[in-house]
Recover the amino acids of this structure.
C-alpha cells in the first residue's frame, strides 16, 4: 500500500506544498487529485522560493508529477507555470497531465466572475479562476478534456457548440479567439498529456512510493465543508481515489496538514477568528497573504472542534503542524476546544449558525524555535502545546515545522514516512 495521502485539515493555506515537497524526497512520484489553479502552494528551498498553482509540489524534488483526472486545468495557466519553472531551472519533463482532466477555458472565468458579482454582498470569495463553472460543465457533460486536444477537429466542434449555447443564454464569448489560443497552447501541452491512470497504477504495482496531494482544505470541501462558502471540488481524502484512478486499498496513511493557528481567505464563517490586534499580529508575523490571490488572510486561534471533524471525515492517521514558530512571541496562546451548539447539529451547520468557541489559553514559550532540529530542542511550553492538541484529537503530530525551509521540519519517531538526512 505505497500511497501517502496529504490533505489540508483547515480552510486551506496550511502549508501542504512544503510538506509534500519534503516528503517527495522519499518518494517516486507526487500526484494531485483535485482542484485547479486556485490553490497555490509555496515551496522554499534554500534561498529560492517557488510559487506553484497546479503543478504538483514534487516537481522541485525532481520526481514524477501527475495532474490527475479529478483536476480542472487552465491551459493558459499551465503553459505559463511550466515555462516559469523551466526558466527557474526546474526540469518539467516528468510533469504529466491526465487526458481525462477537464479544461478551464476563458468563458469559465467570465462565468465565475459574473456569478460572484451577482451575489452582491453575499460573495463566496472565489478566486475568479473559473474552477466552479469548469466543474459544472464536467457534471453537465459539456466539458472539454485534455485528451480532446489530440483531435483538433473534434475539440473545435465541441468548443463551437458550447460557445453557441452560451451565446444563446446571453453570455458573450469570442469562440474564434478562444480556439486560436487553445490551438497554440495544445502544441505546448500535448507532450505532457497522457493516460495517467495506467501510469500511476504501474508505479504502484512496481512498489513505487507515491505522495497524493489534495488542494485547499477539508472545511472547503464541496459536500462536507462550510457550504456554500466552499470550493467546487472534493478536497477530503475520499476524493483521492476517484481523482487519480486508484483504489482506497492503495493508501496506507493520511497526513493532515494543520497550521499551529487558523486562517481563512474569502467569505464564510470562521469561529475562532480574531478580528483585532492579535489577529493582525498573527497575519504580520505569519506573512498571511494568499499565494494565488494576494489577499490578506483572516487569522484566529487553532480550532480543535473543526479539526476533530476534519480528522474524522478524512480518516487521518497523522498530522503535520506548520508555522509553530509564528507563535514564538505570544505570552498566551488560545485554542478553541469546542463549540457552544446542540450535539445533534453537524459541525458545518454549527459553524454556519455562528457557534461560539470555548477557548482555552496555554502559556507561550517566548523563545525563537527556528533553530530546533529535534523534538527535544523545542522549549517545554512548545512541546506542551503540541501535546495538548494531540490529546484532544487522539492523533499523533508526526511532523512539526519551525520555519519555511526544508531543514526546519522536525520529524518525530511515529512519522509514517521518514526522509534520509542525505536527501533532505
Amino acid at each position: 500500500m505505497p500511497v501517502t495521502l496529504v490533505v489540508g485539515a483547515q480552510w486551506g493555506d496550511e502549508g501542504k506544498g512544503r510538506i509534500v515537497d519534503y516528503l517527495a524526497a522519499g518518494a517516486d512520484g507526487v500526484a494531485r487529485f483535485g482542484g485547479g489553479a486556485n490553490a497555490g502552494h509555496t515551496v522554499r528551498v534554500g534561498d529560492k522560493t517557488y510559487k506553484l498553482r497546479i503543478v504538483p509540489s514534487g516537481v522541485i524534488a525532481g520526481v514524477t508529477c501527475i495532474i490527475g483526472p479529478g483536476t480542472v486545468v487552465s491551459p493558459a495557466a499551465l503553459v505559463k507555470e511550466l515555462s516559469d519553472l523551466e526558466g527557474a531551472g526546474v526540469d518539467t519533463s516528468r510533469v504529466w497531465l491526465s487526458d481525462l482532466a477537464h479544461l478551464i477555458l476563458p468563458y469559465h472565468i467570465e462565468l465565475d466572475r459574473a456569478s460572484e458579482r451577482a451575489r452582491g454582498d453575499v460573495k463566496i470569495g472565489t478566486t475568479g479562476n473559473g474552477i466552479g463553472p469548469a466543474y459544472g460543465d464536467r457534471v453537465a457533460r459539456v466539458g472539454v478534456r485534455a485528451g480532446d486536444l489530440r483531435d483538433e477537429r473534434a475539440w473545435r466542434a465541441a468548443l463551437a457548440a458550447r460557445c453557441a449555447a452560451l451565446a444563446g443564454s446571453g453570455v458573450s464569448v469570442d469562440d474564434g479567439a478562444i480556439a486560436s489560443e487553445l490551438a497554440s497552447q495544445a502544441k505546448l501541452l500535448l507532450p505532457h498529456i497522457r493516460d495517467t491512470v495506467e501510469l500511476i497504477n504501474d508505479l504502484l504495482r512496481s512498489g513505487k512510493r507515491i505522495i497524493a496531494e489534495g488542494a485547499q482544505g477539508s472545511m472547503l470541501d464541496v459536500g462536507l465543508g462550510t457550504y456554500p462558502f466552499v470550493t467546487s471540488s472534493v478536497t477530503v481524502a475520499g476524493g483521492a481515489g476517484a481523482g487519480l484512478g486508484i483504489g482506497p486499498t492503495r493508501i496506507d496513511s493520511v497526513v493532515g496538514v494543520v497550521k499551529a493557528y487558523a486562517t481563512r481567505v474569502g467569505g464564510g464563517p470562521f469561529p475562532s477568528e480574531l478580528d483585532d490586534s492579535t489577529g493582525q499580529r498573527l497575519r504580520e508575523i505569519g506573512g498571511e497573504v494568499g499565494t494565488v490571490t494576494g489577499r490578506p488572510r483572516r487569522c484566529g486561534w487553532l480550532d480543535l472542534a473543526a479539526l476533530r471533524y476534519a480528522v474524522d471525515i478524512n480518516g487521518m492517521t497523522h498530522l503535520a503542524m506548520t508555522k509553530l514558530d509564528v507563535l514564538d512571541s505570544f505570552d498566551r496562546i488560545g485554542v478553541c476546544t469546542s463549540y457552544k451548539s446542540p450535539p445533534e447539529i453537524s459541525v458545518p451547520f454549527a459553524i454556519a449558525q455562528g457557534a461560539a468557541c470555548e477557548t482555552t489559553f496555554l502559556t507561550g514559550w517566548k523563545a525563537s524555535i527556528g533553530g530546533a532540529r529535534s523534538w527535544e530542542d523545542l522549549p517545554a511550553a512548545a512541546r506542551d502545546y503540541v501535546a495538548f492538541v494531540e490529546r484532544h484529537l487522539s492523533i499523533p503530530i508526526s511532523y512539526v515545522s519551525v520555519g519555511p525551509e526544508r531543514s526546519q521540519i522536525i520529524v518525530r519517531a511515529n512519522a509514517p514516512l521518514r526522509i534520509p538526512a542525505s536527501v533532505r
The first strand starts at residue 3 and ends at 8.
